[in-house]
Design goal:
The complex is a heterodimer. Chain A has helices at 4-31, 42-49, 55-67, 70-80, 86-109, 116-134, 137-142, 148-170, 177-208, 212-242. By secondary structure, chain A is mostly helical. Helices cover 80% and strands 0% of the residues of chain A. The radius of gyration of chain A is 19 Å and the shape is globular. Helices cover 31% and strands 36% of the residues of chain B. The chains are: A mainly alpha, B alpha+beta.
Chain lengths: 243, 204
């Protein structure tokens, strides 16, 4: 029988290599931007060509934004990581949904001009916070457990502000804005539920494994790294945009 | 060291439940892929549901735009137009205009989805004054120019029925409108022009 410490170490190395390659992937995804001058391709291009009420296309765009938004998904994963009962999952996910819906709708409606880099850096920090929270970091350092429901709601507000700044960049036509915005919000929640469904299946199998608690530590450490990376990228982007 | 207890077995879903959820997820993913994702991203709609939902139109517009963006990049290279230049030039575009005699009146009709480009050949620092009206529906436009590696966007609009103003050119070349009908009916646009230009170019 192999000594368990070596076994554990190689597992940790694997995890770190995985985290690193994931980070590089995300970084590459962040670097590529649309470059053509007359034509805006993609979702933004479509939105800039249309006006009036388009309920289902905006539901689709909202869901797509959530499912492909790895910062939101990572936070959601952190929130449900140690929630074993469906009732708790429902409560926390609803708090997150409430938070991001409020700021998303108000942010777009009133055109809050908050810098996208700053808000995305805070969203990166929300991932760091939740992963540290899962690791019991605050209990040990502060001596008490900060309210997890409040944290989920408050970070939800920041995630919604981030969503709002993305939607403002889309330049949705004022014609049909409210209906389209509400449709987008519905889409965001549908996308969140779809992502959550997959997360819960994976977590369901994982939690049954006898190594779950040990691997959970590694997974949350990786999440801290990814959150730091997201934050770093946004701060670097902000510095580049101001200089 | 964790902020959570070890999961209790009775709190966890059974293997049978998880298996069922996985099957639902797989079927759901396949259905969304075929009925929603393919139409909405590529305009490919094997089931016909994408068209019913209005997603195929989105996919077709995206494909058209990405094709145009690729052609555009081949033609002009990939650089963004300077937003500073756009901002400064925006000041030159004013709306109030007297009813002096127009030099040219161009009328054209676009079916839904059709587009055309109408541009005036101008020197650097020249001014063009215009007024236009759309009839039968609403129109999208992009008033711009690109020549010799330089480019400028004067104004963009969508779902508009009229417009008027003037602009001053920052460089020599063809300056004018890309028009596209995204409405559901044919649109006829009447465009009136005057100013320092040597000719009009139209390309479809």
């Amino acid at each position: 029988m192999k000594p368990t410490s070596i076994h554990g170490q190689s597992r940790l190395t694997h995890a770190l290599v995985f985290a690193l390659s994931l980070s590089i992937l995300f970084y590459a995804a962040g670097v590529q931007t649309a470059a053509a001058h007359d034509v805006t391709p993609g979702d933004a291009g479509y939105i800039q060509e249309i006006w009036g009420v388009h309920i289902i296309p905006f539901i689709y765009l909202g869901a797509k934004h959530m499912v492909t938004g790895y910062d939101h998904i990572l936070f959601l994963l952190g929130v449900v990581f140690f929630l074993y009962r469906m009732k708790d999952v429902a409560i926390y996910v609803s708090l997150f949904a409430l938070g991001h819906s409020v700021t998303m709708l108000f942010g777009v409606w009133y055109g809050w001009g908050i810098n996208a880099y700053i808000i995305d850096a805070i969203i990166g920090l929300s991932v760091v916070y939740k992963a540290l929270d899962n690791l019991g970091f605050f209990q040990r350092v502060l001596g008490f457990q900060p309210n997890t429901k409040a944290a989920t709601l408050i970070f939800g507000l920041f995630h919604g502000t981030g969503l709002a700044s993305k939607i403002l960049e889309y330049k949705i036509s004022p014609d049909g804005l409210l209906a389209n915005l509400l449709a987008f919000n519905v889409g965001v929640e549908i996308g969140q539920l779809l992502a959550l469904f997959v997360i819960l299946i994976v977590m369901g199998y994982w939690r049954k494994s006898p190594n779950f608690m040990r691997q959970a530590t590694i997974a949350n450490i990786i999440m801290v790294f990814l959150g730091v990376l997201l934050t770093y990228q946004q701060i670097a982007g902000y510095i580049a945009s101001t200089s | 060291m964790y902020n959570a207890p070890q999961p209790k077995l009775e709190d966890l879903p059974s293997n049978r439940q998880l298996g069922r959820m996985s099957v639902v997820a797989a079927i759901g993913a396949a259905a969304i892929g075929v009925m929603v994702y393919l139409p909405a991203e590529y305009g490919i709609d094997p089931t016909g549901i994408g068209s019913v939902l209005g997603l195929t139109e989105m996919g077709e517009i995206k494909q058209q735009l990405s094709k145009e963006a690729a052609e555009d990049e081949k033609l002009h290279g990939s650089q963004d137009s300077s937003s500073l230049v756009d901002g400064v030039l925006g000041l030159f575009v004013s709306t109030a205009q007297a009813q002096d005699a127009w030099k040219d009146v161009v009328t054209f009709t676009l079916e839904p989805g059709a587009y055309t480009e109408i541009k005036a050949t101008m020197e650097k620092g020249a001014t063009l004054t215009y007024a236009w009206m759309a009839d039968g529906g609403r129109i999208n436009f992009d008033l711009h120019a690109h020549a010799g590696g330089e480019n400028v966007t004067y104004e963009k609009g969508r779902g508009e029925t009229s417009g008027a103003g003037s602009f001053e050119t920052p460089f020599a070349g063809d300056h004018g409108w890309f028009w596209r009908n995204r409405d559901t009916s044919a649109v006829t646009v009447t465009l009136q022009l005057r100013g320092d230009y040597s000719g009009l170019v139209r390309s479809d």
